[in-house]
Design brief:
Blueprint: E1 16-21, H1 24-32, E2 41-44, E3 53-56, H2 58-61, H3 71-77, E4 82-84, H4 88-105, E5 109-113, E6 116-120, H5 131-146, E7 150-155, H6 158-165, E8 173-175, H7 181-187, H8 198-206, H9 212-218, H10 220-227, H11 229-238, E9 254-265, H12 268-289, E10 293-301, E11 307-318, H13 321-333, E12 342-350, H14 356-359
Parallel strand pairs: 2-4, 7-8
Antiparallel strand pairs: 1-6, 1-7, 2-3, 5-6, 9-12, 10-11, 10-12
Bound molecules: 2'-deoxycytidine-5'-triphosphate and magnesium ion.
The site of 2'-deoxycytidine-5'-triphosphate has 15 residues, from strand 1, helix 1 and strand 3.
Cofactor: Mg(2+)
Active site: 116
InterPro entries: DNA/RNA_pol_sf, DNA_pol_Y-fam_lit_finger_sf, DNA_pol_Y-fam_little_finger, DNA_polymerase-Y, DNApol_IV, PolY_HhH_motif, Rev_trsase/Diguanyl_cyclase, UmuC
Length: 370
Amino acid sequence: MYHKNKNENPPALRKIIHVDMDAFYAAIEQRDNPVLKGRPVIVGGNPKGRGVVATCSYEARKFGIHSAMSAAQAIRKCPHAVFIRPRKEVYAAVSRQIFAICQKFSNCIEPLSLDEAFLDVSEDILNLGSATRTAEKLLETIHKHTGLTASAGVSFNKFLAKVASDIRKPAGLTVIRPEDAPAFLEKLPVRKFFGVGKTTEKKMHSHNLFTGEDIKAMGEEKLKNLFGKAGKEFYAFAMGRDDRPVMAQRSRKSIGREVTLERDIRDTGAMLAILKTLAEDVEASLVRKKHAGHTLTLKVKYPDFRSATRSMSFPCPLWRAEDMMEKMPELLARTEAGEKAVRLLGLAISQFPDTEQTKGQMLLPFVFHK
Ligand code: DCP
Ligand code: MG
């Protein structure tokens, strides 16, 4: 696998945990209302209207119900299911609690959604001895503090850790060690590969690609011809290679401010004056958080509530209000502001470069105890 030269050790492998809460919204509903425990519970929009299923309890999944299905169809599949409207604020609060717990286990966490995150645990900050033990302790702690179960996958790259977390759901832990990866990947259906959705799966099947083994056998060149840049990635994944770092700053996608005006305004000079105060606020926030970003975005909302955003990217990251304001007239001119009145103005900086944390992910030898 590696070019071995007598004096050269193979590169050390990372240790990554992917953690994902089980039936997240539905599990919270069951926790908060014990009558629902053990019963099919569906959280989603109005089944009498065009509502869709956000998620459902594992009891409901036995009836073939799943996320994104129409709520009406879900009720037909399981008429005795309990239907609940989402309580988004409650789920967000639990999510914050879970991420706070994750912070205790790793200095490098990449949230993927409310209920899912990657943790780089190459550095054993709690001295638990192994990534497996760390994952076990993480699941225990989440359960103890929230009353909810999560599942986790542990491996030496993001792709494998994520696939692993799904294997023993709910409340399961799966470890894919480097020596087990080749056999695991060979049997893995192509649909499980990162970046393969329904359409790509179909295309793969039409070329007789069904498993990782088939991907590997086809070779990089041919995959590249068929799938472009993605083909190269599919090949790397099938070979157990995925160098994507855990991006600790992903949670913070942008820093911005917006204000709804007391009265609609049409004078662009007045708009710029307001934007300047917003830019100064954003600068203060960026300085406080030691951030600077490559993209500046302006947002306007017109009296009819339609809104427009216009962005500009820069080779050097921005953080100073002055620099933001230098480009603001140009961004504003690309909207209808002025011809039309506006009722809201906002600006944001995004595209933060990788942090030191991300760059400096520890590379320690890969040892799983147990
Ligand atoms: N969600 C949603 N709409 C979707 C998918 C998900 O609103 N189409 C919400 C509800 C889920 C939460 O996001 O509870 C987390 O999504 P997951 O895909 O992780 O699904 P669950 O946590 O519900 O179940 P699982 O045990 O399969 O992870
Ligand atoms: Mg989940």
